[in-house]
Structures are given as structure tokens and as C-alpha cells.
């Protein structure tokens, strides 16, 4: 349904995206991750037809997606991007901002859809406010409402929930989840959060320096990272020095007695214990480094742990 072939983007002779190729079936979900500046937003804008690739092609349902140099009005009718600038109609009210995306529908549908989206995003009481008077989080919610009103076939979300509090975020995420499934909408989401990536990513694409270095499931990334960068993205990683090299393990990957003969014993000194809800986070010193160990209850006084190396 979406086919990306050797996309290259250059800004002032600097290669930002280098030979990006992948494809997605209708209804699939992909999360793009990678360090700041690796090209995620540039790729989303290119996929939305808002940025002209220097080389390569994009096809959506068998048709070529034309970039801004090939279209009078940049963009694509069935591909919608919620980016970090929100791109609202600043001098229109919240309601008008949503209504402008519903022009093709009759008045009864428009009203009920506007009410549904205002309720979902908790913006009812701001419905008559001008968009440029909203807070950052309110603007983000309005941008999401507009993208959903547009009824896209491919939804592109650039860190869409990063300004929302836990409850609202949960509610909006659940709604989008059901909505996408109901209409079999394809999703590409850019995220900096491991939790969000695991929540949304059937497939996760890791970008480094404008290249795709790995596409895999979240569980494979978590359990079998190829390096510290990948490991660190998906959660805390402990690193300790052992017999001439570094070994890595996650905060729950330890035992108080050796469980396998390849387990490595590490001497630890407790620094502090932090209550984190359903678990306790223990900070230990190992040489001049700190490590973190999770346990449901505070750990008894220990001087050593046993670990197996993660990669
Ligand atoms: N219009 C532009 N002109 C020149 N360089 C640009 C332009 N837009 C982006 N860049 C550069 O391209 C690189 C990739 O930027 P991009 O915004 O795609 O990264 P990102 O992975 O989304 O980063 P972040 O996670 O910080 O949002 C960066 O080095 C950025 O400075």
C-alpha cells in the first residue's frame, strides 16, 4: 500500500536521508525511532508529500506521491501528518479548525463529528477560542482532532502525545487505536519514548544518520539490542566493567544467587532505594559507576548480584 524506494533527501549538499526503502501494508503500524537529528521528521514530511526528495520514489496505493515541486498544492489528500508545528488555522476558533476539515460532509454529520472530537480531546470548553490563544498541549490536541476529522488512509504522527498528561493521553491513544482498527488506517508514528514505541509499534524502524539500520519488533529490540544506543532507547541499561570489557544488563536481569554457570558475579554497594509504585528502584555503586536494580519489594542487604550479559 505504501512503497518507499531509495528515498534520498539533501539539504545544502548535506545528505539527511540516504536510500530509505521500506513498504507497509494497509492497516500496518510502524514506529520510527532514533537519536535527535537522525532524519525522522524529514522522512515523515517526505512521505506526506511536503518535501521533495532529491532521489527515489514513493507510491501510495500504486500511485506515485508527488512532492511539492510536482504539485500546485503540496501534500496528499489521503495522507495526513500531525507535525510538531501543529499547522492550525490560528485565527479560526477551535470548532472552525475542525469544521474546515469536514467540508465534504453534510451539516448533521459535521456537528456530531465536531462534538465527538471536542469531547475526545477535552476541548469542549475552548470550542470558541481562537487557535492561537491555546496552550501547547491544547494545540496538540486540536491538531490530532483535525487529523482524525480528515479521515486519512495513512496517518503520520510526529511525537503526537508528548505534551499531554497521562489520563488524557491514555484516552486519546485508546480512541485512536480503536479508530485506526475500525477503518484499517495505516499509521507511522515518530517517538522518543520507549513506552509509546512499545504501545504502538508492531514494527519499529531504527534510524541512524539518515539510514535505516534495523527494522524489528519492539520485543526483539528490547531483548536483543545490537548496541548500547538501541538498548538505551528501549529502557535503562546497566553497564559494568568485567574482565577487560563492558557488560550490559537491564535492571530486572539479575539474580541474588547464581542461576546459570555463565552468570557473572558483581560486587555492589547500595546507595539508595526509590519507591516507584509497583516496584522499588535500587541505586547501587559498582566501582565508579552506578547501576539500577528493580524489585517488587526493597532488596535485603546484598553485597553481590549475578548477571548474564545482554549483548
Ligand atoms: N530545512 C532544512 N535545512 C537544512 N537542514 C535541515 C532542514 N530541516 C532539517 N534539517 C537538518 O536535517 C537533520 C534531520 O532533521 P530532522 O528534523 O528530520 O531530525 P529528527 O530525527 O526528526 O530530530 P528530532 O528527534 O530532534 O525531532 C538535522 O540535522 C536538521 O538540522
TrEMBL record:
The keyword Transferase does not apply. SMART domains: AAA. GO terms for molecular function: ATP binding; ATP hydrolysis activity. It holds the Pfam family ABC_tran. Keywords: ATP-binding, Nucleotide-binding, Transport. Residues 2-234 form the ABC transporter domain. PANTHER family: SPERMIDINE/PUTRESCINE IMPORT ATP-BINDING PROTEIN POTA, SPERMIDINE_PUTRESCINE IMPORT ATP-BINDING PROTEIN POTA. This is ABC transporter domain-containing protein.
